[in-house]
Design goal:
Elements lengths: L5 E5 L8 H7 L18 H11 L3 H9 L2 H6 L3 H5 L7 H9 L4 E6 L4 H14 L7 E3 L11 E5 L2 H9 L3 E4 L23 H14 L3
Parallel strand pairs: 1-2, 1-4, 2-3, 4-5
Helix pairs in contact: 2-3
Length: 210
């Protein structure tokens, strides 16, 4: 049996439905993750500018394209971040992970102090038992150890975490390359969403569980 590990669950994009609501906040007409332009990866700012241009809003698209990255992420107010909803079945997925032999923590980046406060409030509302088990800040790879596993949707976060000595599992999303991987959404069934089943399969592989 494998030794106990620390599971670090990313919030935005893994447990929190953030990307499409953020694009809608900026005025993009989009309804589903599947409509995200995959060629932009996790460059959400460029993806928004691209879709606005496609939707005949060239002036707004240019403004967003030329906006400093910090300004782009600072613009949404605290209420936006706090009002985001969990991804479907995400809370059940956390409960499922709690049955594993590992210790579960939450981890999230933040855009500014208001965003950080909103993330803490979100956790208190939706996952209250984790109010003192949430790590908020940058960069995530500083928590990497041989006994830690990061579950994240951002390719760079996963790569940095692995280079720093930890193990990373990428949650399939349209803004990362795993979305189109051969195993994605084809082999799994059950009450959990397919992407969570894939994460579970990865965990079993790490643990050596058949």
């Amino acid at each position: 049996m494998s030794s106990q590990k620390t599971l670090l669950l990313d919030l935005d994009g893994v447990l929190i439905d953030m990307v499409v609501p953020l694009m809608q906040w900026w005025g993009v007409r989009i309804e589903r993750d599947e409509d995200y332009p995959q060629q932009f990866g996790y460059d959400i700012q460029s993806a928004i500018a691209h879709l606005l241009e496609q939707q005949d809003r060239a002036c707004q698209a240019e403004d967003i394209h030329n906006m400093p990255k910090k300004a782009f992420w600072h613009r949404p107010p605290r209420g936006f971040w706090q009002g985001l909803q969990p991804c479907p079945t995400a809370l059940n997925f956390v409960k499922f992970l709690e049955m594993s032999p590992h210790t579960v923590y939450l981890m999230t980046a933040h855009a500014n102090p208001d965003c950080a406060a909103a993330k803490a409030a979100w956790v208190e509302e939706h996952l209250p038992k984790y109010w003192n088990r949430v790590l908020i800040g940058h960069p995530k790879h500083l928590t990497a150890t041989p006994q830690s596993i990061l579950i994240d949707d951002c390719t760079k976060n996963c790569e940095d975490f692995t280079r720093a000595g930890g193990t990373a599992i990428q949650c399939p999303r349209p803004w990362n390359e795993r979305w189109n991987a051969p195993e994605c959404f084809h082999r799994h069934s059950g009450s959990r969403r397919p992407e969570y089943n894939i994460i579970t399969q990865d965990l079993y592989a790490i643990e050596g569980t058949p």
